[in-house]
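Issue 218. Parser rejects a valid record. Input:
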Amino acid sequence: MMELNQKRIVRAWSFYDWANSAYSLIITSAIFPAYFTAIIPEQVNLLGRNFHRDALASYSISLSFLIIAFLSPILSSIADSRSNKKMFLRFFCYLGSLSCMALFFFEKNTHGHVNLIYGLCCSILASIGFCGSLVFYNAFLPEIASKDQQDAVSANGFSMGYIGSVILMIFCFAFILADEQLKWGLGSLPVRMSFVAVGIWWMGFAQITFAVLKEDALPKSGHHGSILFNGFQELKKVWHQLKQIPVLKRFLFAFFFYNMGVLTVMYMATYFAGDALHMETTQLLSVILIIQLVAIAGARLFAYLSQRWGNRQSLIVLVLIWICICIAAYKVVTVNQFYILAFCVGMVMGGIQSLSRSTYSKLLPDTEDHASFFSFYDVCEKLGIVIGTLSFGLISDYVGLRASALGLAVYFVIGLIGLFWMKDNFVRKSSGAQ
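Output the parser choked on:
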């Protein structure tokens, strides 16, 4: 067992945020979406149907999260019964990082043809690796930090992630920009090399986490029957337990909807900027850098404010800002306006993700397997992303890209209602759940 609040353990745990956030920035939000938009025609015929490229990207993201939402309870059941969260953390880390490296071969050939299915498969596997590893990574949080420290530890992890990903992003961006400005004529090589760099960065720095995190050597008791179905039985058990913990149930309701909006924005913002505003690749990458740099301060700011206002009030403020961002995105018409919007997104993105993770961790019962509860949290998150990205793609396909941005505001409004539904029965400052 690990002791709580040990600096060495907390730092090693946070280094996984540092490691995997390179995927979140470069593959999810920045270089890969810009590259995808650059080499894929606006209309794509796939499986006998025409897709807009943004909708196709959205649907592929939905599929990857649907797969991981199904796998998550099975995996957490195995991890709970055998006390091997770290083994699964390592497996999904390697799956994700190797899939990122494999994207090096996703390109347009000399005849103008793109190996689209290969690229989509690699991106889906990378997404599964990223999301699958987070199930087990997040489950370590209540095992390394006491409740009064979890806001700060969670925020520190996100901040380290933003810093690490920005460092790698700057190197990749510099290589791409140098090729363009100095006329090296390397074509897509600098972009594709950035995918390899992400995989190496992710796998390499994760070794710090793997070397330090420990868990019980013996399997936990109380797990019987088929491992394949135990995970779903655990989710059912958690669902019934939520009836006895109203504050946790209401938080999950709110989280499901507002996080649906947050992560859809994170995954689709670059596609939106590229097609709605016709921003160039270097402009898109600049926008993403702004978001990441500002998010470092945002995560720490709202961790501080949660200590003064309480978690619920801080989340309400964050969701209100997100609603304003969605409305502004519908109306934005110039690149400079989008830069301002990106600054606002960065300020609240890190804050809401960090505070959501630590809030949920604080509200967990002390005597339960953390992996099962975090699996439930993860399934809520992933199903939310499936619905969010799928609806974004459908609205974009049938109504228009700007309408998709406005539609996300509805999810934030429902999440806001859920937060108000919690009333005052909620964790405040460093106290436990009431």
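Fixed in the parser; the record now loads. The chain has 15 helices and two strands.
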